[in-house]
Design a protein that fits this description.
The structure holds two protein chains of two kinds.
Chain A: H1 27-52, H2 59-71, H3 81-111, H4 129-152, H5 165-172, H6 178-206, H7 211-240
Helix pairs in contact in A: 1-3, 1-6, 1-7, 4-6, 6-7
Chain B: E1 3-9, E2 18-24, H1 33-46, E3 69-70, E4 73-74, E5 96-100, E6 109-111, E7 114-115, H2 118-125, H3 147-157, H4 164-168, H5 175-186, H6 195-208, H7 219-223, H8 231-247
Parallel strand pairs in B: 1-5
Antiparallel strand pairs in B: 1-2, 3-4, 3-5, 6-7
Helix pairs in contact in B: 2-6, 3-5, 5-6, 5-8, 6-8
The chains are: A mainly alpha, B alpha+beta.
Bound molecules: protoporphyrin IX containing FE, iron/sulfur cluster and FE2/S2 (inorganic) cluster.
Chain lengths: 245, 248
């Protein structure tokens, strides 16, 4: 009979990711690494966005800016040394960011192995983050690869002269290469969503503001995302619609 | 009213379960959700079937035992309400209601809707306490506590350890629960001596139990019957950062 006392097998704890070693490998530790590297990437992205706007000043100015990045600090510093310090820092931040993101995503998938049969729309404060952060990140990775091939190494860009940054930008967004522009704008949307959640999330992870300041960082985060997306988008749009030529 | 229920039935931890449909008539609007399940169980027992196992204890919203995922929402559709305090008047005649257990790697199903939440106990054992000399109760004002801190600690102490936050979290994270404990104890003078070891110990036990990391989506706070806010997670992060920097 069902009301009889029955012995039953103890529940086995679910499969789990390997137990982390040391505080910095813990979920919060990795989250701090993700947040700090993410903020460095945000600073880079803002500087990059501002730098791109030189395109509106014409060929000489833009190329002088690009050359200036290479000769920064000369003759005190060797040629391109400043550029390489920035590049090494950027690569380190990107690797730390992607590594912590991958480890945390894998742990999260193990921590939530069974889906609910009944699913309701999310109702949390940053409810779009799950979809936009992880899928958006894949779009951003693809974009970064394309971007390096296009404007850094010029592998897929018709303008091979490294010193003609202006010409390369005009060539890549020329009207007949519209799919490149569309992909660029799509990647920007992904970046915008990433920043909209990422910036306030990083502040929450690093400094843990109170409820009032959390609301403020969410507003700032949205504003930065909008400015960054608009600042980047205006360049290809201006070139495609031949406002810059 | 008349309802069709789909309930997760699983004989034991090792046997796979499935959703099973039950029709139930004459449900009183004044019944709580658990009383509605009691009525169903009476019928199942009379029919010689195994009743639906579910956790419950106080039935007044203070113990944290009840734990049902109702229509994909932890503790059901009503905000700031435990399953035992949810009443059938929140549903309509003819509704179909899905009832599932909490889902998380760290909360394995024991039977039907009952999950093993001892992982939370291990987190508490790893730091969710204070060491204080016992004896007669001290005078109420022997240790002054600023009013703001006392209020914030009291709000955090409202956590009943139900696990709805974990169940609602897309990453199966226990950060809201852990944050509530860290905030509650860390805001009080009595909680200061163990403040650093507490947060390091609790976080290690949390990860060891297989809970995931927080992505600040806020599903936990939306599900919490005691309205614990995301600010406790911020406080937890802050305490952790300081303690980890010290330990390094
Ligand atoms: C290169 C590919 C990238 C990948 C694979 C990636 C991946 C991720 C993932 C998975 C998260 C966690 C989301 C969550 O917690 O739900 C995240 C957070 C974040 N990302 Fe990225 N991201 C990338 C690029 C960027 C870029 C270019 C920036 C800045 C411009 C950035 C800034 C941030 C920030 C600030 C956070 C928040 C950290 C936190 O939640 O504490 N990411 N990223
Ligand atoms: S924080 Fe809220 S949802 Fe989580 S265990 Fe405590 S009372 Fe339950
Ligand atoms: S049974 Fe105690 S809180 Fe619901």
């Amino acid at each position: 009979m069902s009301t009889d006392l029955q012995t039953r097998t103890a529940a086995q704890p679910g499969e789990r990711a390997r137990a982390p070693q040391g505080p910095w490998r813990s979920n919060i530790g990795l989250k701090i690494i993700m947040a700090v590297s993410g903020i460095l990437l945000v600073l880079f992205i803002i500087a990059h966005m501002a730098g791109n706007l030189h395109v509106f000043e014409g060929r000489e100015e833009m190329n002088a800016y690009a050359a200036g990045l290479r000769s920064f600090g000369e003759p005190l510093l060797p040629h391109e040394s400043f550029l390489w310090i920035m590049r090494i820092g950027l690569i380190a931040a990107a690797l730390a960011h992607i590594w912590s993101a991958v480890v945390l995503t894998r742990r999260a998938m193990v921590a939530r192995p069974v889906r609910y049969a009944s699913r309701k729309p999310a109702r949390g404060e940053s409810r779009h983050a799950v979809a936009t952060m992880r899928w958006g990140a894949i779009v951003i990775v693809l974009f970064v690869v394309w971007h390096l091939l296009d404007l850094t190494w010029r592998t897929v860009n018709p303008v091979k002269d490294i010193h003609d940054a202006y010409g390369a930008v005009l060539a890549t967004f020329s009207p007949e290469r519209w799919p490149v522009t569309v992909f660029y704008l799509l990647a920007l949307v992904a970046l915008g969503f990433h920043l909209r959640h990422g910036i306030w999330s990083a502040v929450q992870t690093i400094s843990g503001p109170n409820t009032k300041w959390r609301g403020r960082t969410q507003a700032i985060s949205l504003a930065v995302a909008v400015v960054v997306v608009a600042g980047f988008a205006i360049v290809p749009l201006a070139v495609t619609f031949e406002l810059v030529s | 009213m008349k309802l069709s229920l789909r309930i997760w039935r699983q004989p034991d931890a090792d046997t796979p379960g499935k959703m099973v449909s039950y029709e139930i008539d004459d449900v009183s609007e004044d019944a709580s959700f658990l009383e509605m399940l009691d009525v169903l169980n009476e019928r199942l027992i009379a029919e010689g079937e195994d009743p639906v196992a579910f956790d419950h204890d106080c039935r007044e919203g203070i113990c944290g035992a009840c734990s049902l995922m109702i229509d994909g929402q932890a503790h059901g559709p009503q905000a700031a309400t435990t399953t035992c305090q949810l009443h059938m008047r929140k549903f309509k005649d003819g509704d179909q209601i899905d009832v599932e257990p909490w889902r998380a790697g760290a909360f394995p199903v024991i039977k039907d809707l009952v999950v093993d939440r001892t992982a939370f106990d291990r987190i508490i054992q790893a730091g969710g306490y204070i060491s204080a000399p016992t004896g007669t109760a001290p005078d109420a004002h022997a240790v002054p506590v600023p009013k703001q801190d006392a209020d914030a600690a009291f709000s955090a102490a409202a956590c009943i350890g139900c696990g709805a936050c974990v169940a609602a979290c897309p990453n199966g994270s226990g950060m809201l629960f852990m944050g509530a404990k860290v905030a509650h104890l860390g805001l009080m003078p009595q909680g200061q001596p163990e403040r650093h070891t507490r947060v390091l110990g609790m976080v290690a036990a949390h990860d060891e139990a297989g809970f995931g990391g927080c992505t600040n989506t806020g599903e936990c706070a939306a599900a919490c019957p005691k309205e614990i806010g995301l600010d406790v997670i911020g406080r937890l992060n802050r305490d952790f950062r300081k303690a980890a920097a010290r330990a390094a």
